[in-house]
Write a structure and sequence with these properties.
globular; alpha/beta; 263 residues; Rossmann fold; single chain
């Protein structure tokens, strides 16, 4: 399925799609390329917000920018007791659906952008951390991955368990709204309530988000690893921490592609 070489158009034209868990550095690397090397940056999270907020939530556009995406989290909300800052689960599910539809459209729009300007180069597509919930990396006809891989070199960011533990600790300190695949979300919600003998309006929203995030870590790591194997390459944390410029990233990518050829 995978055909990634030094001659791939994504690599040759310097069009990279960064995939991975939130907090691993996708946006940091993307903004570094913008500042130091004048690359173009397509932020899927930012585009999701623009799509969502213009459909009846225009007040959330105030202050919403690539460097400040907090309004997107505010829109998603957390399910549970309204007295603890939560929203009804049915409303949470509705917002999840809206986020899913906007994310699919925003991600595909990255490819449409290139199709309209096929010679566009030096472009980094900073995908949402939840892209893994929208794709089937085993399906060679998957619409999103096929579209991205046709126009970009897919790069999955990976990290050691110690970094994922750090992400969990940060989340514990400040739980935030997340997007979940619907079947997985329903299973998490029902099991969480059952374990605590809680009704919908008794659930502590932050407690549920922490519970969900811990479950997402393992789930998403496995999916991103499969995407890297079948659709692109992966760069580990040691490689990523050395990336200070476009030249650094290109070199790391080239080394990884050549390493895969030798395997």
């Amino acid at each position: 399925m995978k055909m990634v070489t030094n001659e791939s158009s994504g690599f040759q034209l310097r069009r990279f799609a960064l995939l991975g868990m939130s907090g691993l550095g996708k946006t940091f690397i993307s903004r570094s390329l913008v500042k130091t090397d004048n690359w173009s940056h397509y932020s899927v999270d930012y585009e999701i917000g623009k799509l969502l907020f213009k459909e009846g939530h225009k007040y959330l556009l105030d202050g919403f920018e690539i460097g400040n995406l907090t309004n997107l989290s505010s829109f998603l909300g957390k399910p549970g007791s309204t007295s603890m800052g939560g929203i009804p689960f049915a409303e949470y599910l509705t917002r999840q659906h809206q986020h899913r539809d906007a994310e699919i459209k925003a991600t595909l729009n990255a490819a449409f952008l290139v199709e309209n300007s096929p010679d566009m180069s030096h472009l980094v597509c900073d995908t949402s951390g939840s892209i893994c919930e929208l794709v089937n990396p085993y399906d060679r006809t998957d619409r999103i991955l096929t579209s991205l891989s046709k126009h970009f070199l897919i790069i999955c960011l990976e990290a050691p368990d110690s970094i994922y533990q750090l992400l969990i600790e940060r989340f514990l300190a400040k739980p935030k709204p997340m997007y979940y695949e619907e079947g997985f979300l329903n299973s998490l919600w029902q099991n969480f309530k059952k374990d605590r003998s809680s009704a919908n309006d008794e659930v502590n929203p932050d407690d549920f988000m922490v519970h969900g995030f811990k479950a997402l870590i393992k789930r998403r790591k496995e999916i991103f690893n499969t995407i890297a194997r079948n659709w692109g390459i992966s760069l580990n944390f040691e490689q990523l921490r050395k990336v200070k410029s476009a030249a650094d990233l290109i070199k790391a990518v080239e080394v990884e592609i050549n390493n895969e050829k030798c395997q």
